[in-house]
Design goal:
Length: 201
C-alpha cells in the first residue's frame, strides 16, 4: 500500500495496524486521546479523528516492529456492523459534506456489502445514493429499495457499470475481485481514488 492509499482507503479498513503507530504527543492531545466508551476499537475512533483534524498518514519504508495476530485478540471479536457504522459515519463527516459528493453519488456493487453500506448511512445521506453500478448481468434492470426518513421506500436502479460516473463508492471486496477494479479503470479512467471514489469494503 502506498502512502497515498493509507489515506484514500481509510474507509475500507484502518490502514495502519494500531500497535505500529508512532506519533508525537501533540497529535494525541489534539485528537483528545482514546475514547474508551466505544463499541468499536478505540483505534478506529482515534484514526478517523486524526484524519478529520487534517492529520497525515505515512509509512516507514522498513519494518520496525513485528506484529503477531492471535485468536483471542479483541479486534477479531468486534461486531462487524458496529465497525461498519463507525466507518460510514466517518465517511459522511469527511466526504459527504462537500461537493460533488453532497449532490449525490453512485455505489459500485449491488450485493450484500452495498446494501449494508446503505443501511449504515444516515437518512439524509441515503437520499444521496443515485444508482448502483453492477457488472453482473443478472442484477441489471432491477432496483434496490432504500428506506427514507418518512418510513417509505425509495427505488434506486441497478445500472451497468459501463455507465459509471464519479463520484462513487466501491462496495465490492478487493480480495473477491469480480473484475470490478479493471472495470473502474476501463469505465472511469479519469477517476482518482480518494477524490472521485472511495473503497468502503
Amino acid at each position: 500500500m502506498t502512502d497515498d492509499q493509507l489515506t484514500s482507503q481509510r474507509f475500507r479498513e484502518v490502514t495502519l495496524l494500531h500497535p505500529t503507530w508512532m506519533y508525537h504527543r501533540r497529535i494525541w492531545e489534539r485528537v483528545g486521546g482514546y475514547t474508551q466508551d466505544t463499541s468499536v476499537g478505540e483505534d478506529i475512533v482515534f484514526f478517523h479523528k486524526h484524519l478529520e483534524a487534517n492529520g497525515l498518514l505515512l509509512r516507514v519504508p522498513r519494518p520496525l516492529l513485528r506484529y503477531r495476530c492471535h485468536p483471542g485478540q479483541r479486534s477479531w471479536r468486534l461486531p462487524r456492523r458496529a465497525v461498519q457504522d463507525a466507518k460510514v459515519a466517518a465517511f459522511e463527516r469527511q466526504v459527504l459534506v462537500s461537493e460533488p459528493w453532497s449532490q449525490g453519488f453512485g455505489v459500485v456493487g449491488a450485493g450484500r456489502d452495498a446494501r449494508d453500506f446503505c443501511k449504515a448511512l444516515s437518512d439524509a445521506a441515503r437520499q444521496l445514493v443515485t444508482e448502483f453500478y453492477e457488472v453482473d448481468e443478472k442484477k441489471l434492470g432491477k432496483t434496490i429499495s432504500l428506506p427514507t426518513a418518512n418510513a417509505s421506500m425509495r427505488q434506486v436502479p441497478v445500472v451497468p457499470q459501463r455507465t459509471l460516473r464519479a463520484p462513487f463508492v466501491v462496495c465490492v471486496a478487493l480480495e473477491r475481485g469480480f473484475g470490478v477494479l479493471e472495470a473502474i479503470e476501463r469505465d472511469a479512467p479519469a477517476a482518482v481514488e480518494g477524490v472521485d471514489f472511495f473503497h468502503l469494503v
